[in-house]
Amino acid sequence: MQELNRKTVPTTGLPIKILQFGEGNFLRAFADWMIDKMNADGYNSGVAVVQPIAHGMTDLLQKQDNLYHHIYRGLVNGKATSETRLISCIQKSINPFKNKKTYDALVLLPGLELVISNTTEAGIVFNQEDKPADGALASTFPGKVTQLLWSRFNHFKGATDKGLKFIPVELIEKNGEKLKEAILHYAKLWNLTDEFTSWVTTNNYFANTLVDRIVPGFPKEEAEAIRTSIGFNDNLIVSSEVFHLWVIEGGNEIQMAFPADRYGLNVIYTNNLTPYRTRKVRILNGAHTSMVPVGLLNGIETVRESVEDKSLGRFVRHIIFNEISPTISLPKHELEAYAEKVLERFKNPFIRHELTSIALNSISKYKVRVLPSLLDYYKLTNTLPKGLVLAFTHLVKLYLSDFAINDSQKVKAFFAKLNSTDTARTILIKVLENEAFWGSDLNKIPGLTDLMTAQLELLNKGTTIAQFTYE
């Protein structure tokens, strides 16, 4: 078996136009996979990867000359499909904590156009204490970006064509806007010039984005078989599902610099990201959160088993198509197509997605992912969505059960204090009035307490999902 490097696999060098903060599984299976496919059709853009924290994977990348294999597997129109691809778009990988001079030179490349980042939800923050000494690296990601832009501003003397386009993928709402806000806060904190602030605002572009792809990462159990198949000793194999979606909210500047839609990729450019975020959070994430307590209380372990089970699968389809989708302001045909694709993804035979892993912090997840659909459905129809309410009741039952809840101590303590000898109604009144959970007293929603009481009483008698009426 050969070692993987650019001697054993000759490749053509590419001009570095993209700076990427983050070398983890997601970006390598999502953004870099896209860029590599675009390059095959003439995009001609190389990537320089920057390790955003002290401990990372740049050493592994460098050992393989920044080459690795991506494998996607899943169902397309009901048929299993897979593709293995050598990814060669990364030209350099740098750990700025060990090699700051190389990093400093990199950010001044005149042909640099784009910055892609994934520094986790906690990455885009402003820290008042982040005041690096001269020559030192800022501790936060936005601090590092501020330093980067300050260097470019000074090196190119404020040239209007040397600003950058930012496409962050951190999973926070308005990620581009929040990155820009943090940069401007640092400019003020560090007493940088008004001219620089104006240049950042006028000549740099920050897109809000939404990304969607399930990336299990390194296929540990199958790694040797995959290495044998590809013929290389690759320690950075990354796997993902087939589906991918990138929604980018920004001006024409972003689309011109990163025209992924022209290369057959599922990238949507829009001036309003909100409906797409709502669609993903409510349909995909909402279905996940709704099926978890129902599945676990009915002896089901995985997402795939849930949607393939006759009774639970019917329940999941009902809530998606009849209760969640009507609350989203997008065309019906588009919502239905997305929902069908979500269900196909749930059936992916190559991914074992445990319900217990999704169950983490289910109370807060229900509030964000499901409760808005319940409330909007009631506003639209003046009736309760019985399926979403039934999922809610199962959630309460799960937290009252002996199931090993993975949630905050405050949440677990609240349910532990509920008296098991109280009536179902008394318990539900206490749960629904907890504004710390839901943001308001849900007992005030007409009929909700009564419906959940009836459902909980049936659950307490051992009623299964197959026996409930919710349509």
Description:
The chain is of the alpha/beta class and 471 residues long. The chain is globular, with a radius of gyration of 25 Å. α5 (141-155) links the parallel β7 and β8 (165-168). α10 crosses α15 (362-369). The strands form four sheets. The protein has a six-stranded parallel beta sheet with strand order 6-3-2-7-8-9, sandwiched between helices. The chain has a three-stranded mixed beta sheet with strand order 5-4-12. The chain is 46% helix and 14% strand. The chain has two domains: 2-270, NAD(P)-binding Rossmann-like Domain (Rossmann fold, 3-Layer(aba) Sandwich); 274-467, N-(1-d-carboxylethyl)-l-norvaline Dehydrogenase, domain 2, CATH 1.10.1040.10. It is built from 21 helices and 14 strands. It has helices spanning 25-29, 31-40, 58-63, 100-106, 141-155, 175-189, 194-203, 223-230, 252-257, 274-297, 303-308, 310-324, 332-346, 355-358, 362-369, 371-381, 386-400, 409-417, 424-432, 435-438, 448-460, and strands at 2-3, 16-21, 46-50, 68-76, 79-87, 90-94, 114-117, 165-168, 205-206, 208-212, 232-233, 238-240, 245-249, 267-270.
